[in-house]
Amino acid sequence: MPSFLTCHFLYVAPPNFHLLVARGFVRIVRGPKENNMRPAVDPLFRTAARTYGPRVVGVVLTGMLGDGTAGLLAVKARGGVAVVQDPDSAVFPDMPRNAIEYVEVDHVLPLSGIAPLLTRLAHEPVAERAAAPVSDDLQHESDIAEVDMAAIENEDKPGTPSVFGCPECGGVLWELDDGNLLRFRCRVGHAYSADSLLEVQANGLEEALWSALRALEENASLARRLAEKAHDRTHKLTAANFEQRAQTAEQHAAAIRQVLLKGETAPSAETPKISHV
Asked: Is residue 205 part of a domain?
């Protein structure tokens, strides 16, 4: 009896590169960041779904924010299987909860149950059926991940222009409605889920507030020094003017410092619970 050896390989994206799937091979590309991450899960899922359709099993495990949800939607749209770790068993439940909220997930399991499921699915033949066609949006976003300049430079962008700028490059963000999932992508390909955009904006706001605090404190310090010099020259009116400017700057600095110390620039860490039947 002949024997057959089945080989299994695990491919991991190196830092700062997306891992993408093509027919018969995988590739790494330093494409635009998604959800402010590179590597990101969504480009991997999209290119796998585009290439292999119903033969793809997408798995979302513990993680923060919503990376993986948009890609899992693509997997399901092409007839693949969606597997998500039970949020109650995840160290960081955001990614599983987001996936469950927006995707018709096939399996929600604790971590210990996912490996046996994947083993079973890998040995089950995929039902012979016509896969859903690759949508224009899926093709376009996959091409962007692969740094296809024709797709990046194409003026016919999916979605509608929003009022928001891309935190990475400053360009206009196009608003994409992926079912009930709200996403954004800019001209050169940077992409964000709504919660990741909120997180990046909050980080940028905090940096701006720290810069404003520093500038106000320096302004108050300089005004105090000029007031002292005016006092020394008995220029009382000028000294009073500088004192007033110093007090105003200090008051504004104190208000900004309170906001920073209370953490009011960061989005809420609370995530609503999702019930499973």
From this structure: yes
